[in-house]
Amino acid sequence: MRHATVAARILLPTLLLGLAACAPAPIYKNAPGIIAATPMQVAQAPEQYAHGQVIWGGRVVDVRNLPDHSEIEILAYPLDSSQRPEFGAGGSGRFIAIVPGYAEPMNYPAGAPITVDGQLAGSRAGKVGEADYVFPLVRAAQSHVWTAGEMRSGHPNVSFGVGLGVGIR
């Protein structure tokens, strides 16, 4: 029995370290001043978060190209440790990423997972369907549209449990 306990003490931390190593590093540097509030929270009190830095992500809803900049409307979701949107968690509001110049809509297709790093730039009243809505504005310094492969990477197909299980992929 003693050997099993010693083996468990060695094997479990090694296994956990191995699983943690599977997760890719965050794509943007988490600076100390990054605001942890969700877009929904910022929309309710935009003055409280004025000019703060955020790293937000979600799904692209729409792209609007204007004469000197583009706006990408995003339905926000929480981010995992690699800053990828986690769609199983439910949306946490919408925001508009403002990018300089022209944003090719084919590079930002509707529904695509995206992560944005930028500075809050106020808010704007608008509509979602017929409903009034307040959109936080983020002046994007950088953005990343995730590929299907990137969304899957770092998610090992490993599960632990007791009993019988069948998995089909």
From TrEMBL:
NCBIfam families: slp (TIGR00752)
Signal peptide limits: 1-25
Keywords, comma-separated and alphabetical: Lipoprotein, Signal
PROSITE patterns registered for this protein in UniProt: PROKAR_LIPOPROTEIN
Name the record gives this protein: Slp family lipoprotein
